[in-house]
Amino acid sequence: MSRIIGGALPHIPWEDKPEGCKRPVWRYWGNPIIGREGNRVSNSVFNSAVVPFEGGFAGIFRCDSFSISMDIFVGRSSDGIHWTIEDTPIQFVREDAGSRRQRIGEAAAGMDAGMEEQGKTHGDGTGFVREYRYDPRVCFLEDRYYITWCNGYHGPTIGVAYTFDFKTFVQLENAFLPCNRNGVLFPRKIGGMYLMLSRPSDNGHTPFGDIFISQSRDMEFWGRHHHVMSPVQGDLSAWQSTKVGPGPIPIETDQGWLLIYHGVITTCNGFVYRMGAALLDLEQPWKVLYRTRDYILAPHELYECVGDVPNVVFPCAALADGDTGRIALYYGCADTVTGLAFTTAEELIGFVKEHSL
Ligand code: BMA
After folding, report:
1. Is the per-residue pLDDT at 122 higher than 50?
2. Hey, which residues does 149 pair with through a beta bridge?
3. Whose CA is nearest to atom 3 of ligand 1?
4. What is the pTM of this model?
């Protein structure tokens, strides 16, 4: 029996596995849960992240506009299925010296005296000016919700911010040099360090991609960049032969960190995005214990195959109930709408082990 290590979430959106379903993940009957018109300014709403918040749910949504510019917006929901998304994008504020000292501790703050001055004089040359923002993740960590997203700064890199209330968002320095995408935090420190997965990339439609993990003491300086996993060469698991990238915040289980990820193949019609799952070592999560040879979800439904970018399922968030082991998975469909799917820790971990590479 596999067990999720984490709190109960009795109001997690849920549907039992349909009779006769042979796959480890099944879709919500009412998909897509968010259509193109998620707010007044959206051409499309997809690749978005949700968390439990104040008895209901809050989320950060990628809404591309009618001019196809990409930005991120706050949304709220009482049931995790019906969402109200704001019409104006998140406006970030900079962290002040007092909040920074509080966050990382007086002693640590003393070590990088002078940073504040530097920050001020860099002005518009910093990564705080909005170029574009997309593919957010949200991670509850210690006492606040951290947001990471793909942030335009001379190419894509990983933006980082935090909020306590989904009203005020405090932006920190970008985590990495460009080009990088899919910054995914772990929900607790490991060995005294914050950990983040990412997928270094290029400035275009990257035809490669490995998952790496980086460590930080203060959410600002990231290092110890260890390799986690590569695409699979040859014919063994062709759906993940071009690139792989981390999806939702890893779910802690007694069998390891359960990581749902995207895997991509290059076909004569371009990229096709599917989903896989892996178990990472609890203490040294750059060690992959198991990883699926078979995909767990693929673009088969019309709304996953037809849209602004066809044939994409792209997972960015998962809710998990520590009591029942239920998992609700949020994913972008064809870069156009948002889907919801279900599994359980028992089912998915069983599948990962049984169909491992
Ligand atoms: C990736 C990102 C995602 C997108 C995917 C498929 O590189 O841009 O936002 O869903 O391509 O187009």
Report:
1. no
2. 159
3. 135
4. 0.96
